Amino acid sequence: MTTLPPSLSPSRSQTTCASLLQELQIIWDEIGESDGERDKMLLELEQECLNIYRRKVEMTRKCKADLQNSLAQFESEIAKIVSSLGEHSFSFSRGKGTLKHQISYIRPVLEELRSKKKQRVKEFTETQSQIVKICAEIAGNGQAMTSSDPQVDERDLTVKKLGELKSHLQELQNEKIIRLQKVDSHINMIHELSVVMSIDFLKTVSGIHSSLIDPANGQSKSISNDTLAKLTGVVNSLQQEKQKRLQKLQCLGSTLIELWDLLDTPPDERKRFEHVTSLISLSVDEVLRQGSLGLDIIEQVELQVQSLNVLKASKMKELVLKRQNELEEIYRGVHIDVNSDAARQILINLIESDNVDLSNLLSSMDDQIAKAKQEALSRKDILDKVDKWKHASEEEKWLDDYEKDENRYSAGRGVHKNLKRAEKARILVSKLPSIVEHLTAKVKAWELEKGIPFLYDKASLLDMLEEYTVLRQAREDEKRRSREQKRLQEQFAAEQEALFGSRPKKPLAQTNAMVGTPTSRRVSTPSGKHGVSNLKERRETGRVNNVIPLNFVALPKDDPMSRGN
């Protein structure tokens, strides 16, 4: 129970009241107030004292109620803040004691929660503001960025909700980065294309959005869907224009080269348009040189082509005859016979008649040249084998002449070269049947595919091969008969030698009958050495009765190399 202070204790109050009443009685006695008036005044005093006490009690009760209400409000606010912040683990008690004591205990807790809530609201506001700003940039609404801060729902300020907002913000920021990269990529592409085609870059980009050239007041580049769509459209349009211009210049460049070749244009004149002809082999992505696809370049090349076409018309007769020469050279190179004089006379008559379009005539001759080249290509493999066959035949003929020369082994300059050539010739000649067989099969396959005979300088190649085969077989038979006859003669000579003894033979001739084999000193072959040693043995044993001349040389009966054939 709370005690009153000493100044308000009942005993002291009564003493004070009694003293005042005595003083009041003295005053009344002096005034001469009646007892009734005195009783009335005392009653009023008593009533006023009671009223004062009542008012004080009411005030005290109201103060208590206010304290209780404040305490309840504090508790309610704490509960709301804890709920909105999601601090489910938070707990508190008002404590014990008087109401003021309880309020003094709970107030710091409430202030701390209020501060935490304020910080959380600030984080929500900043996050939502950035989200709204990026969304406005993506949507292309620049005014939304200058509006007031977004309203925050203070009923849900949980960490989970804040995390969701921040996650959404991160996604938007990533989206913004990607869009900025796309914008920069498109701008760089537009710049490259503009430089190559001599197009005003600033005018092109500023027409899409002003912020892409000079962002003002800290405003970033526009990343809206509309801006990206326009940038993409401009890039596609410029790429198509680049492709169109490149194809046009490539066509003009090819035409230039054709006209130069036709007109025998000197290299210095061609060099003036080297920057154009170099584009022929390039793809679109490889063309990066500044101004290489400008309209002024295209106009310049078009004028040059027109000028060369005029010159071409005046030299068409010369060009047609030049084409005829080229066609004849192709046919001559693959051994196809053509009537050159008749063809030239027909062309001259056509040109002089003025009844034919010379450009069409030239184009027709180009087609004939292309077909001739294709035909020449189809004959190339066979002609290569024909050359090999002719070379082998020539070596065969040389080998026959070489083997007929009795002095081929005589010592002298160039003998070792002829020996090596003969050895190679024998190897090549041994392959002749296979060469002819393969060549014949090739020709037959070609004729079966084309449906026409394979002519070689007006003659059928198959007939030539058959004739060569017959003649070669005849030569082989003749060689065989000659070797057999020689063998019989040598056998007969050996028998006569055994019966009557050896006779001196004529010395070797000192001249060489074979062309390309000069007269030289004798070179002994393995068979020759063998013959000399036999003679020495017979001389020593006394079985040789006849005197051997000093100039006697035993020659081999047959060329061991020719026996290999």
TrEMBL record:
Gene3D superfamilies: 1.20.58.1520. Belongs to the MAP65/ASE1 family. Residues 504-541 are annotated as: Disordered. This is 65-kDa microtubule-associated protein 5. The keyword Transferase does not apply. The lineage of its organism: Eukaryota, Viridiplantae, Streptophyta, Embryophyta, Tracheophyta. It comes from the Eukaryota. Its main location: cytoplasm. It is found in: Cytoplasm, Cytoskeleton. One of its GO terms (biological process) is microtubule cytoskeleton organization. InterPro entries: MAP65_Ase1_PRC1 (IPR007145). Keywords: Cytoplasm, Cytoskeleton, Microtubule. It holds the Pfam family MAP65_ASE1. Residues 509-527 have a biased composition (Polar residues). One of its GO terms (cellular component) is cytoplasm. One of its GO terms (molecular function) is microtubule binding.
